[in-house]
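Appendix B. Raw example, untouched.
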Amino acid sequence: MTFIKTINLKAFAAFIIINFTAAFILLTCFSPYGADMGSLTISIGDSSRAIWQGNEYLDFEHEVILIGPGGTRSQTFTGTGTARFSNLASGTYSINVRAVGDTPAVYNQPNPTTAPNPNFPSRMLRAYGIDTVDIRSGQTNNAHISMLPATEVTNEAQFYQALYLANDPRGEYIVIKDDIELTDTINISSTNLPSTNKITLIAEETVSITTVPGTTVSIFNILNNELVLGAPGMRGNLVLDGNNSINYVIEVSVGAQFTMHDRVTLKSSSTAVDVGGTFNMLGGVISNNLIGVSILNDGIFTMEGGRITDNKNTAEGGGVYVSYGTFTMRGGTISGNFADGYGGGVYVFETGIFTKTGGTIYGNNEGANSNHATNGGHAVYVEQVDDGSSPPSISRYARVRNTTAGPSVNLNSEATNW
């Protein structure tokens, strides 16, 4: 009898262990916070703290906002510290960090160019950090967010003062908090930016910058500094709308630089971007203009991503017009553009150079993505002028012969896409 009892106890113990293991496996598989979830530790700020006056950052209230596959989560803390998130599904997350502190006295002064006092609040945004991170399941992930000085603006007067007071040589953020209507072109130059060379505009929701019809030539004229629209991880949408009343949304002068990211739209002008300097398109949309991008004065346009679409010109060149500059396409899409002449997607003229190593330009396939040109070259057209000589002299257009379009692509082709 004793032997039988011993056997029964062992069997009972084995039964308990097997069932407990099975229950744990079931919970792990079906729980939203199973063993395959990851965690993230975010460190914030810069070790030098050189951008702040003394220890003022210790007063900052930090809000860390994490957006990803599981939705939006946030944490807050004061002063220095880290933020930790657990039970995160695998995927790409955006991190936005807001630091709010006491308003510097200088922000309460009248605007440098207009009389009204912008009246910044007593507690205002002082710094911002933004980035993306890839979370791997079952792992402890880490990210570091560098903070830059930042100012929230809700009107034109605040915008001008934020530019004048930018003083970090690495650049600063301006957060557009409300729709802004401009009465004059905003110049991005050493005059308006005496102490920094780079300004980045971001948004936390959908906002627009427009112009009063008939009052401006462009929204931004970048003269000798750098303007960046958007940033990887931005959680809002920024729309620059020309109201069909301006020549350019963005003018990029010789020596200046413009960079554009996802969740940015340039629309409703004669030419969205006039490139005399350098334009790097990493994402975003250029749409509903006569010409999407015009490259002049040996300007340099590099397209890595984004879309140039639905621009409709009454002459040559709908998507991109290349005259005296260089257009290199490595990614992105050019689609749905129209030219009542040659070159629906891309038109190359004068000494322009076009090189395509990636991305897609649609031809005339009668579909929604088609580029179309009344006279031909729906995807790309390269103009070479016959001056009557035999053979034609093209010395003025010699650089056009360096134009390439990638493997198995014929310029002036009616290919459905390439």
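End of appendix B.
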